[in-house]
Amino acid sequence: MSKNLEHQFSMLVREIRKEYVGNGPKEISTRFVGSWAISEMKGNLTNVEKFMISSAKGKQMVHETRTKLVKQIYKRPEVVDKFEKLLDAKVERLFSDINIDEDIAMTVFVFDRNLENKQK
């Protein structure tokens, strides 16, 4: 699959995060491997979240909230539809996590077919 399509996918992830979370990641890169679209995002936390993670309880709250929120966002039909239209493939499942200390999030989208070598 072309690097351009990976870039378009990354920009779509950023746009959706910005719309539903309030800010998008400062850096994002996506790679297609088989049926997986793997997005790595750096610089995700808001200023409020950065303040909150100064305590262990705050760190746990931010991690749980971020993880649950992201999974809920990607269950929205209008969000899923954008990814499926871009790649002409169906989203089957999603895995997401964030490392609060490093402010790095990873989301793995699993599609119904191989994304590599697809031309668009």
Mean pLDDT: 92
- CATH class categorisation: Alpha Beta
Report the helical percentage.
Answer: 40-55%
Give the SSE string. HEEHHHEE
Distance between the termini: 8 Å
Alpha carbon gyration radius: 15 Å
Approximate shape: elongated
Main sheet record? 4 strands, antiparallel
CATH architecture designation:
2-Layer Sandwich
Total domains: 1
State the low-pLDDT regions, or none.
none
CATH topology annotation: Threonyl-tRNA Synthetase, Chain A, domain 2
The count of helical stretches stands at: 4
Q: Helices and strands: which structural class?
A: alpha+beta
Tell me the total number of β-strands. 4
* Proportion of beta-strand residues: 25-35%
Structure notes:
By secondary structure, the protein is of the alpha+beta class. The chain has one domain: Threonyl-tRNA Synthetase, Chain A, domain 2 (2-Layer Sandwich), CATH 3.30.980. Helices cover 45% and strands 26% of the residues. The protein has four helices and four strands. The chain has helices at residues 3-21, 47-52, 56-73, 77-87; strands at 27-33, 36-42, 91-99, 104-111. It has a four-stranded antiparallel sheet with strand order 1-2-4-3, with helices on one face. Helix 1 (3-21) packs antiparallel against helix 4. The radius of gyration is 15 Å and the shape is elongated. The model has no long low-confidence stretch (mean pLDDT 92).
